[in-house]
Design goal:
Elements (H helix, E strand, L loop, with lengths): L1 H21 L19 E13 L12 E13 L3 E10 L2 E13 L4 E7 L5 E9 L4 E6 L4 E9 L4
Antiparallel strand pairs: 1-2, 1-8, 2-3, 3-4, 4-5, 5-6, 6-7, 7-8
Length: about 160
């Protein structure tokens, strides 16, 4: 009984303190109302990508043996206005090779987005994005058929 009374007193004390700090204004809890724009992605990002690519020429063949491991270390440079470029070292089934790309991206106010990269002879790549921590990180997943690839980007510091 005494413990419950102590908890109640503590809660009332905290509420009174919040009301006192807030003055006569109404008290409301709110989520961060940050609205994202393309400008949230500006500068260099390092990224890691992992997953599998369907190696079958038959798009209906989605059995486990048709999927080949894929990993990649990527450097993106975003311009803050919807365009980006970059380079990577990709490894597809144990064979590594360099990739360069350019592309466009969009960012929605809810901090989700899309990017489309043109990797030359390696094709066009589409990814859905979720921007977190005020643009310091970006989670992504490929949306192209036959790809099971996901990863993350982290903002590089330019001190």
């Amino acid at each position: 009984m005494r413990t419950n009374m102590q908890r109640t007193a503590l809660v009332l004390l905290v509420i009174a303190g919040i009301v006192a700090l807030n003055g006569s204004k109404g008290f409301t809890l709110r989520a961060d109302s940050q609205v994202c724009t393309p400008a949230i992605l500006r500068g260099g990002y390092g990224a890691g990508t992992t997953g599998f690519i369907n190696s079958s020429s038959n798009s209906n063949d989605v059995t486990i043996p048709t999927f080949v491991p894929f990993v990649e270390a990527v450097h993106f440079v975003f311009d803050g206005n919807g365009k980006f470029s970059g380079s990577s070292t990709a490894d597809y089934g144990g064979t590594s090779f360099p990739v360069t790309f350019t592309g466009t991206y969009l960012v929605r106010p809810n901090c989700t987005g899309k990017l489309t990269a043109d990797a030359g002879g390696n094709g066009i790549i589409h990814r859905d994005l979720v921007i977190v921590d005020s643009g310091k990180e970006v989670e992504f997943v490929s949306t192209d058929p036959g790809l099971a690839i996901a990863g993350y980007m982290k903002k590089q510091h330019t001190d």
